[in-house]
User: What shape does this take?
Amino acid sequence: MTSTLTRPELTASDRCDRCSAAARVRAVLPSGGELLFCGHHAREHESKLQELSADIQAGDA
Assistant: This one.
């Protein structure tokens, strides 16, 4: 049996790693680490995250 780990949905208590605003996006790095961003910072860093092959997940929080 193979199990897949899923990351929990973003909640109102999740904060942007850059400015502490409400997190709207989770960027999962190939190394397994993750970064949380508000909409502003997600857009600002989007091209670099894509360059790093990050899995960008939008949340509803």
Summary: The mean pLDDT is 90. The radius of gyration is 12 Å.
